[in-house]
Design goal:
single chain, 235 residues, alpha/beta, Rossmann fold, 9-stranded mixed beta sheet, two-stranded antiparallel ribbon, 7 helices, 29% helix, globular
Amino acid sequence: MVKNKIPLIGIIPLWDSAKDSFWMLPGYMDGITREGALPVMLPLTSDENMIADIVNRFDGFLLSGGQDVSPEFYNESIRGTCGEICEGRDKMEWLLTKYALAADKPILGICRGLQFLNVFFGGSLYQDIPTELDSKLRHSQKPPYNIPIHEVELTGFLQTMLGTSKIEVNSYHHQGIKELTKYLKPCGTSRDGLIEAVYMPDKSFVLAVQWHPEFALEWDSSQKIFEAFVQACKK
């Protein structure tokens, strides 16, 4: 009996500069495996031939959270409020995103993943929300990270997916979308106007959220996001 092919989903590795090591949050893996796909932590490489081969072999990609995207990618100098930058991640994600989009492979971005996609398409970021955006909302919480701290209003793609116009989310970031690229459409916004979710209407599945569903898999909204992503990777 021939079994259905299990989708193979590549996850961008998290980088620990102090330990000179790769690592991975279990929530990324668990969110994917619960929906019947096989997650694999990718190597951190900027070898274009290797990345092209990775994109050919895998069915979808998760752009994980992590260090700040280098402001050089959106033509700004690095300010003192900018956090740690991982040059290897910036280079790898740039190439991987280019090849994955060309092949129309599904992409799910989380936190940095949302910020990176916006920068990839020519948008810009707040290097530090607390010092650049006049907001009373708290966008960076302390553990535990499965406690919602603010509301997001949903529209379009994400509203349809989750079946609601508002959700409560967790939040753990100090950067965010400043100028949204014309290639992405907003589908989630917080009360202070910060864009919390985006998608690409002309691709099979490109969705990115600013909050962290991997920390709160017990939420219905979190698992629905992973479910939709994995279903897109099965097609």
